[in-house]
Amino acid sequence: MTTRAESILGLLTGGLIVSCQAYPGEPMRDPNTMAQIARAAVLGGAVCVRLQGIADIRAAADLTVPIVGLVKDGGSGVFITPTLEHARAVADAGASIVAIDGTRRPRPDGLTLAQTVAGLRTTHPDVLVMADCGSLDDAIAAEQAGADILGTTLSGYTGERNKTSGPDLDLIRSIAARCVQPVVAEGRIHTPADAEAARRAGAHAVCVGTAITHPTTITSWFVEALATTSGRVS
Fold this sequence. Notes:
By secondary structure, the chain is an alpha/beta fold. It is about 40% helix and about 15% strand. The chain has a single domain (about 5-230), classed as TIM Barrel. The chain has an eight-stranded parallel beta barrel, surrounded by five helices. β2 (about 50), α3 and β3 (about 65-70) form a beta-alpha-beta unit.
């Protein structure tokens, strides 16, 4: 019999996860707006969405695809679903997959990642855990801690790896070669070609956020491109 975890991971195979997030103070920073964007992404073929915030997750509860849920608390160090209490709240809100900081850095509640995963499973045994990692060592440790999915989300942000201009393909390859659990490529995937490259590098699935769901940044890319050609006519 296929388990719920196997069913979800099978659904994600080769698919696109769309991260629907807006920063505090932005016009789109509204749970209903994020839920509408998530629904639009599903219409476009996304097999899963990633949502930040309890209200956002609840607002998208009617989606027919799995939700990767997280909460951000703080602005430095471990701030992606940083504690067991946060993780349980995300699961209670309806997330099928709880995204947790998967680095080896100290966590605010003093628990290890393994203790956090185990603690979540005592109350939510059917929920999967996605570890947001910043390096191969993070991914190895996260797998040993019991994470179901290994993300490259924090590559370039923890000081262990340089920040690449596009997806960290070397890290994707390294994790896929070393670890058993599936890899979700996330971070600086700006084009369909980037997504294809990440998949070829060994990603089980690809998560795209900014390039699909953040119009302020997308607009700035076009504005900057036009600025470089100002006054020149071909």
